Amino acid sequence: MEEILTKMINEIMNKKGSQSVVELKTDASLRNDYGFDSLDLAELTVRIEDEFGVDIFEHGNVDTISEILKRLGANE
Amino acid sequence: MNKFFWIDKQRGIAKTYIDLIRDLMSIKSVPHFLNHDNPYELYVSLLASVVFSRNVDIVDSDLSRTEKENLGISKNHDYEMDFSELAEGIGSPEKLMNLVSSAAGGWRLGIYTSGTTGRPKRIEHTMESLTRACKIGDRYCDNVWAFAYNPTHFAGLQVFFQAFLNLNTIVYIFETTPSRILPTIEENSVTHISATPTFYRSFVFAGEKVNERVLGVTMGGEKFDTSLAERISSIFPNARIRNIYASSEAGSLFASTGDVFTIPTRFSGKVLIGDDGELLIHKSLLGISDDIILEGEWYHTGDVVERLDENNFRFISRRTEMINVGGYKVNPHEVEKAIREIEGVIDVRVFGRSNRVTGNIVMAEIVAKNAEVKPYIESEISKLNKHFQSWKVPRIVNFVDLIEQTRTGKKVRK
């Protein structure tokens, strides 16, 4: 799951001309650490929904990697 | 009184109303097409044009170079101004405000909008049509406004005049980093905010700290989002949340505290709901434009509504195929045309994909000539940023064997 998420985030970052993330840090903020804007977040949420069938924003905002993983049920 | 007029932390600007008068007095000329990177300078020039009753156009900062050329707004000319003659007339903030609100009879402002077709339209507004929704009076004099719209857009102008005509302080947060927005609102004792749901989403989930000073929160430009409104209520517990229906063609028309809009009595006979549910607006409520297409005396908004009773309605959807990305309209045909020009593209369908962050993002399905050309097509699409605004460029591209069509042969867009 983390591998797929890393790939998705890197795809978005590469399109923006940013450097790829080698390893995701669970406490990293998409907006503040990876420089995601609203369009980047929107793309990520759609890609995640297509891959995992989960709308990560359904129950409120998510910003950190650990929050995404939690919504995906990785910690359950 | 020496209240702050404009605070823009990013640019290091903190101007009082006295500074504003001083800056106005130093102006020697104003161009016909106002095209500033600095919102403060933009509005100082705008006020100068009002004082001298010179018609100007605000150039939408979102327009691409090609769009500007097509609209003929690349050539500019200056209006010379001699403020020394008016020194007495604008000696105090109150005098300036009165001069602006009274000297505006013949003044016209041109603005540009993506409209319902995606092709930018020029709409001419008077001070009356720009300030129709403004509330002016003693009870508003202590308001502090967070400015969260593109300053070249109609919604930005409305916030500007609402604040200026009450001599309020304006705190510019449109370009502020999301994590700094809540602290900026608190540090400057902001009492009122107006923004799109997408803008609110970018910051209200970032902090937990409750701000009791904010008394008014206005949302507009996108579908009402109940869960967002709940979140805003928890961050700003004393704020009255209002949902606004406005368009660049007509300005602010309706306000509500939820998703049900009431047609005010002053618009009686000027707003109709057609048999097919489309909201129609009488031409007397519109700005002046050759680009607005009327049917008889009525403007078709393209918004389909559900009539609840004589004066109340709720929005259902847009009638057009326009994709609403965070309040920006994208014409799928315009994007498809550009993609179709890429070597190796046989067919393309551009459509919106809903999400909770920006309402929609633009997606594309493409039928490619063969597998070898796919990387080239993807790389060319990523370069569309050079011609298009970022929200128009498809974020996700899927290659398919066939584009799905409806029974009437139209591409399926939803």
Could you describe the 3D structure shown?
The complex is a heterodimer of chains A (76) and B (414). Chain A has a single domain, classed as ACP-like (Non-ribosomal Peptide Synthetase Peptidyl Carrier Protein, Chain A, Orthogonal Bundle). The mean pLDDT of chain A is 87. Chain A has helices at residues 2-15, 38-52, 65-71. Chain A is 47% helix and 0% strand. By secondary structure, chain B is of the alpha/beta class. Chain B has helices at residues 17-25, 39-51, 65-70, 93-102, 127-131, 154-164, 178-187, 197-204, 226-235, 332-340, 374-382; strands at residues 4-8, 13-16, 29-31, 33-34, 56-58, 78-80, 109-113, 121-125, 144-147, 169-172, 192-195, 216-220, 240-247, 251-256, 260-262, 271-273, 278-282, 294-295, 298-307, 312-318, 323-325, 328-330, 345-355, 359-368, 396-399. The longest helix of chain B has 13 residues, at 39-51. The mean pLDDT of chain B is 86. Chain A binds chain B through residues 15, 31-32, 38-39, 41-43, 45-47, 49, 55, 57-58, 60-61, 63, and chain B through 177-179, 198, 201-202, 204-206, 227, 231, 325-326, 353, 355-358, 360-361, 363, 382, 390-391, 395-396.
Structure keywords:
heterodimer; A: 76 residues; mainly alpha; Non-ribosomal Peptide Synthetase Peptidyl Carrier Protein, Chain A; 3 helices; 0% strand; B: 414 residues; alpha/beta; Rossmann fold; GMP Synthetase, Chain A, domain 3; eight-stranded mixed β-sheet; six-stranded antiparallel β-sheet; 29% strand
Strand elements of chain B, count:
25
Query: Superfamily at the CATH H level of chain A?
Result: ACP-like
Give me the oligomer status: heterodimer
| Main β sheet profile of chain A | none
The average pLDDT of chain B is 86
Cross-sheet strand order for the largest sheet of chain B:
2-1-10-9-11-12-13-14
Number of domains as seen in the coordinates of chain B: 2
Rounded radius of gyration of chain A (Å): 11 Å
Q: What separation lies between the terminal Cα atoms of chain B?
A: 55 Å
Structural class of chain A: mainly alpha
What form of chain B results from the Cα inertia axes? globular
CATH topology of chain A: Non-ribosomal Peptide Synthetase Peptidyl Carrier Protein, Chain A
Protein chain pair with the most extensive contact, residues per chain: A-B, 18 and 26 residues
Tell me the strand percentage band of chain A. Answer: under 5%
Main structural class of chain B: alpha/beta
Note the total helix count of chain B: 11
> What's the CATH C level of chain A?
Mainly Alpha
